[in-house]
Known about the structure:
Number of domains of chain A: 2
Number of helices of chain B: 9
Radius of gyration of chain A: 29 Å
Distance between the termini of chain B: 20 Å
Oligomer: heterodimer
Amino acid sequence: MKRIFAFFALCSLVFATEEYRLEQEIDNRVEAINARKGIEIGGTVRSASFNSHFESPDVGFSSGDNPRFVNRLPDREIVEFVQLDLDFKFRPYDVIGANLKLRLGAGMQEYFAAAATTVNVPWLNIEGNQKNFYWVVGDFRQLYSPLTLYMPGLDIMYEPTIFARKREMAQKEALMEGNQRNLQGFNLQFRPQLGEALGELRAEALGARLRRAGYLDASGAMGNILPNEGIPGATQAGRFDKFLLGGNLEMLPLNKNLLVGGTYLAILDDKSTSRYYICEGDCSLNDFNRNYLLNTLDSLPQKTFVYAGRAGADIAGILKNNSLVANFTGEFAMSDDKVYTLLPLHEDPEDESSKIIGTTNTGKQETGSALLAQMDLGYKGGINVLLSSSFIRNEASWFNNVAQTPSFFARRVLNSDKDKGCISGSCFSTSSATDDRSFNLSKYGVYSPLYSSFDALYFFTPKFSPMSVTLTGSEPGSDAQTRSYNIAPYAKTSWSPSTLTRAELVLLEELSDLNLQMALPSGFATSNRQGFQEVLTVNWKNLAEVKGLFANYQQLSAFDNAKEAKYTEYGGGAKVDVLGIFGFEKNPLELSGSYKHSAKEQEWNEWGTAEFTSDFINAGLYYRFFRRFGLTFGYQQINSDLNIPGAIAQTENSNLRGLTSIVPIVKAKQNQWMVGLDYTMAKNAWLSINYGIMNVENTYKLKTESHSFASLGSTGVVSGTNLPDYLAVSGLEGVTELKHDFSRNILEAIINVEF
Amino acid sequence: MRYAIVLCLLFGLSFAQETDVLDRQKAVLSALDSIEENTIGFSLNGRAKGGFLGSVLDGQALSDGENASEYSTFTNMLLSISVRPSNETKATFDLRFHKDWQSAYREGNNSPAIQWWSYDGNILDKKLKFNLGTMRLAYTPLTIYLPEPDLIMEPEIFASLKKEAMEERYLDGTNRRLLQGLNAEYRTSIGILENILLQGTFVRLHRNDAFDRVATDFNYDKDRFSAAARFEIETFGFSFGVSDVYTFDRFKSAMRTLEDLFFEKNNVLSFNLGYDAKKLLSGPVNFGVGAEFALSDWKHYRESASQVEHKQLRVDGFDKLIPSNSVPGTDSISRYPYYTTTTKTEYNKSKVDSYENQSALLANAFVSFNQNLLEAKLSGHFLKTDPGFESELAASPAYLPKMPILNSNTALDPAFGLLETFRSGSLENMYFSLYNSLPLNALTMVTDRTDGAGNVFPGGSNNEREIHRSTKLYNNYKFAQYQRNAYTQQTYSRFMRNSTMSDLDPGVNLALPFGYATPDREGGDANLSVVWNNAVNVNGVFGIYSSEYADYTRFGGGAEVNVARLVGLNKALSISGSYEYNEEKKGVFNPQTDRIMAGAKIGIWRGLSLLGGFQQLSKKFDNPYEGIVEKTSEVLAIGGPQVKISEGAEFSLHGGYLSNSIEGGGVKLDLDKYIVSGIVTVKF
């Protein structure tokens, strides 16, 4: 067929315009017909309806004759959305194809605002596969190793199914898959199979743009870590085009039982792309806009190189022993990162008292090393026993943001509108309902009054439209705006596959939830850590399993004024399929539970030994009946304590300038239970109706004998803190601790169907 | 089944030796049409493209002496959704998705743009063809036509870059205009009257879009429509046609203010007559002649608003008017009649300017020779257009450089003053284009910062200004798609054209910037093309035109040699080169331009080939262009490998050097750009 066309094309190779044009037309048409090689369509329907009813006995707080402040924002947040991800795979069985994920979304409230419903392309790429060579251009995911290219996540031991499913949905909505990092660029993988002795060769290279020079809406909640805050890392606007280039070479000889490999990464800001930011003379921007638009607060070009070598062996595999587990891998990595020292730039360089007109910096390359050794030892038989050991030694100067940026960044989700504090002076106005002196605190994540770890972990809203502060239907003028971020739709979720800068990571670490990310916020690539982790697992026929965990880490180099921090984690858990044991395999009744204790200890010269401890309890039940119906129950509890030196250290070291001060939570109790009924069609397809209650009891420390965390006005008003507005009312003279209780009743209906 | 049809047709045809190539090609096309027509139902097709284009700008003009880079790294997809309810009609929707690579933050709502929608059909036994929605359309060179850059022997690499830039604007290089509306064509034959064509077209050219602040592309303050009809007939090689195109503003669609509004009307009536001797002459020689004669009317109106006082006689206490021709009744005798005055805004239309019965004559003739291995064709045009001749739908050019394409975000040293305006030369505009999707905020939305801070809604209270100040725009969930592209599908009325296109790029179509419908031209051109063995192609062009204000001369020539065919290689190997000179004399600026092009394509191995091209364009002005530019010189050298991965899928990697040197007023602005691009494309 093609030859006939070729013959024809040859016959008609004349240059007369008409014939030439027709010939071109024929060629194009034939090519287009030949290029049509089918389509596969798959996708996911994701729908949730959360009704979260907020309650707190403190809302009605009143003190003597003083007027009482009432947080007028609604107690109830109803989130309803439907998302349809349509996955098109064009030319699915050809050497080249294209993939498109078309995301159609609707919030069920938007009936009259059809234009506000979303049609989006979160994933688009072209990929090819020829023999042993696979390549992709556009969106892709890639993981090399925990120290090189990796996305650290969270591990919750025996997380109850009812919650684990919610977390899976939230992570998939953010397009995350395991510990692979999401990137946009090109990725090449050449993996020839060289026979038993030589095994497999992996020669891989990738290039991606992590960030582009461009503006973001600096006061919007979308695309910023802390909108409207004048601190480094607050806005994610790209000062430069930031590129990642990487190469990975691995050899897996002896039937893939040995591994030798190395990785090279370069993460570079191209300084010459910052031309957007030239703002000489009068560029009509005030300081605020200059800092935000031009992102002058995070404006030093990154220049990081990472070299890593790794080796591993599966001894049991080499010995061809099926009942033994014995494998180890070791990786050593070096980073070479440009580090800057910032100095103020004075109008008169000779005179240090003259006006500061900017900053200047001196940069030098600083190297840091990281070591990760992992070993699994065990026995496989009637009972499987496995001991997994990990050891890390990462210097403080070790830096690799494509391995250190975590996928979880604790944010506020449910009832975020209600999350308000007082801005200054008196929190309330008796004269005018619209003279609202409170401000929305939800952007401060873990420091927000209504923060709960469970809220951050398990809930998300793809498109959330915040409420106007005054609840009046005015134009988007200043009255209706929160002082924290713009009233504009944004995605409310803690899960993000982004890659952050050094300044953003510093901010993120400060805002991380210590209950979930204490010892290793950046996974095994966390810098300034040395220590080990042991996990022992005993499993019987997949029907019963017991696990024990012990980990101990410490900082390698201390901060100024402090000694090295020490981290300890221990715990254990079990799961058992009660009915499975008795042979009812089609109707499993699975019970699970775990307990984990985490502690951080650090000695500060000035304040003493700071201690933070956290205990996390999980209990779950899953019972399947009538083949597809399921009954689920989950209970979680987190209790945490922060001692006074810890509280002082937390507030004194804070970068959050937007708040006058952070009033520390010295004791927090978080509980959550949920019960649900589900209909499960396949592993990733279920419908469920759940009801549960999440409650939190936080104890804030206002002052100690020697230290005051919040400044009390003459009438005892606490303002400009992270205390909820209704707690910060007057009449607090002499009070040293405040208790804040709140709870959420959650009723939800979920559909998650992957097809 | 569908392939079987083509195969049958092809085998049949290969035995019919006497059938001529053109007819066979048409038959194959019609077979392909029938394959597509019989694929009834819903289909998804399109193409995906991904890669990068980086440009590093170098030159002393950068204020701090350092390079400036710009990278466009993207994935985009054109998804064409078509529905064919029967083999006669088809509805098509094109969605364009575009993602600029970054994984720093979660993107907001990056919606697709709908760039094409149409419902097309071929009904009544394929006699009536219709298009509803977006369409490409051309009548004749003096009525509906899209003048495109006319270059001699453009090397393949340049042609493909230009094609890509034009495709971004949905232009396909066939001189057809991109229009939206309704078009119907009825074709039939009666006895000796072959190919009788009746065609009618109604399209909207502009929409009243005064509030679209985002783009200068679409701003127009009233609706503008065009209605056209055409009749053609052919017999014994003779053809005759008549067409009429009427273009007008719809008065009532304008936003009325107290300021004057201007409207234009344009009518073109055209007759064409032609003869092609192909049917008569069976030997190696053929000839043909043709002529199109058009008459145009163009009228320019002003609608002025005036405040007119109306007096009315009333009677106190009675809220009623007293008819002016009657005497107040007895009831009202006791009361005093009095006058009330009301002021009304009245609009009066007056003709400001007009050119009526202006003519244009375009005649063409060709003689061709085709025997054995040699094919030669000599063709020529004669053109005479009156100064007032106006044919809007034929005179709006496809190429209209308005903005820098590459490194546009880089400010140059202010010392170069106005020379900066010319920072992007012809070659950049003609061969490069950018497409971006950016978060919408004031800085990406508003092009001029008239009130100092980029406020979107200038004139608000201080408070509002603060709120709407550049960074604060309450739609941060949205993305928008932007283009930097010198090609346009727009039509311009005479008034718009005269006010916006006085400074057209003199490097392209100097004598006939608006195609054959350029007003005030007299002259002609000749084109000789000689092809030997389908391997050597030599082309020469010569043209002289004059107008009331200037004389134009164009000459040039080029050659293309398909070496592979000459020496019998089975890999592609061809080279081409051309030279073109254009000049204006007795005009205002009197530019003289030289263009040298050279290119090569070398097949290396299987689908891998190397493409390269060099182009130099120099312009010289007797009087400084726009009062400042005396001389410019541009060079573009670009080349690299191209790999055909599979059917409809290829990868191309280009490295290039683009320089632009502008001299004027004793100052010289040198800009060098180093360009790298790597793009993979797949159709499906």
